[in-house]
Amino acid sequence: MTQTSTPFPDGFLWGASTAGHQIEGNNTNSDWWHKEHSGTAQIQEPSLDAADSYHRWPEDMDLLAGLGFTDYRFGIEWARIEPVPGRFSRAELAHYRRMVEGAVVRGLRPMVTLHHFTVPRWFEERGGWTEPDAPDLFARYVAATAPVIGTDVAHVCTINEPNMIAVMAGAARAGDAGFPPAGLPTPDEETTRAIIAAHRAAMKEVRGINPRIKAGWTIANQVYQALPGAEEVRDAYRYPREDVFVEAARDDDWIGVQSYTRTRIGPDGPIPVPPEAERTLTGWEYYPRAVGHALRHTASIVGDVPLIVTENGIATADDTRRIAYYTGALDEVGAAIEDGLDVQGYLAWSALDNYEWGSYTPTFGLIAFDPETFARTPRPSAHWLGGFGRTRRIPRTSG
């Protein structure tokens, strides 16, 4: 096996990602906090203190910068900023502004996510995304974030994985909070339309805050692979779950590509993962090549819109498998760049072990934390992956 490398393109983002609710702790005004404490069957445990990153963000940023990363994607919580309708917390806006400034001081370029699955409880209780004024309410919140993102923030993500928001809404409307044995539930069409409208309204607000900000959103790519003869079935299945959201990014400054595994499609639809396949702690098939397929498919839809890998990683208790996964994934990223795709960044999921929407069992983190003391421990994979930020080259293997 031959070891090679691909140089980073100019300005390439090299970092790790997190989401506010998953690491901050005690996001008590959010819809998710309410779900966690309402006896929902799919939620095994509540988030509670999470990794206490609300208070310990300086330590987290120190670690990432020290490891060699140059970029950090983190979320700001709508539920903290607007805890009641139309009332904005100056203290919370100042908190998130300190995070932006703290990242810059440490040599980390901040990418700020405005919405990462959670909304204020009041927003959910009044009907959520399908209320007629939901896009306007989201735009009002985005406008209020001007003190946070107005300076020093080059990249803003409006909404994380809008296709999964629509999928979950579809599952809820069908009265089934679970997922089928393979594939995803049918997305709710009304939510799809609303979330695209909210994104477009948010893009307008971000550009009004500072036209130099590069804004976009991130899509969960399931890497739908058709068995011979099932191409039309695949395309019809994929469109409402993914492609309609990718199409909505054609006028954006960039699009985030997020992938972890693949979904094979046969004549009758999705095919379960074979029993003999290696699985991760989330039950997904171990498939490092997913990100390459996701990049190429996304590029085929958006044309010349720049691509950023905003999430990619693996939930595992074996860090050697994490390094092996990233090795295979980075082969794909490097190959895509060498083939001429405009890939402008790679951010691993995730910087820290975190609350994976119902459980702390799936450990995605490059950095582990002790739930009692909150002490952080970078794994070998963190040193390995972060180190390429110093060489400014993407590792490649061949042969």
Please tell me about this protein's structure:
The protein is α/β, with parallel strands linked by helices and 399 residues long. The chain has a single domain, classed as Alpha-Beta Barrel (TIM Barrel). Helix content is 40%, strand content 19%. The chain contains 14 helices and 15 strands. Strand 13 (367-369) and strand 14 (376-378) form a beta hairpin. Helix 9 runs antiparallel to helix 10 and helix 12 (290-302) packs parallel to helix 13 (319-338). The longest helix has 21 residues, at 189-209. The chain is globular.
Would you summarize the structure shown here?
The protein has 399 residues and is α/β, with parallel strands linked by helices. The chain has helices at 20-23, 31-36, 53-67, 78-81, 90-105, 121-125, 134-144, 146-149, 162-173, 189-209, 231-247, 290-302, 319-338, 380-391; strands at 2-7, 13-17, 71-75, 109-113, 155-160, 214-221, 224-226, 254-259, 263-266, 269-270, 307-312, 343-349, 367-369, 376-378, 393-398.
Count of structural domains: 1
User: What's the level 1 CATH class?
Assistant: Alpha Beta
Oligomer category: single chain
CATH topology: TIM Barrel
State the fourth-level CATH superfamily.
Answer: Glycosidases
Q: How many helix segments? A: 14
Q: What does the average pLDDT come to?
A: 97
Radius of gyration from the alpha-carbon trace, in angstroms: 20 Å
What is the end-to-end distance? Answer: 5 Å
Largest sheet: 8 strands, parallel, barrel
Strand/helix succession:
EEHHHEHHEHHHEHHEEHEEEHEHEEEHE
| Proportion in β-strands | 15-25%
**Extended strand count:** 15
Low confidence ranges: none
**CATH arch. level architecture:** Alpha-Beta Barrel
| Helix residue percentage | 40-55%
Structural class: alpha/beta
Order the strands across the largest sheet as they lie in space: 2-3-4-5-6-8-11-12
Shape: globular
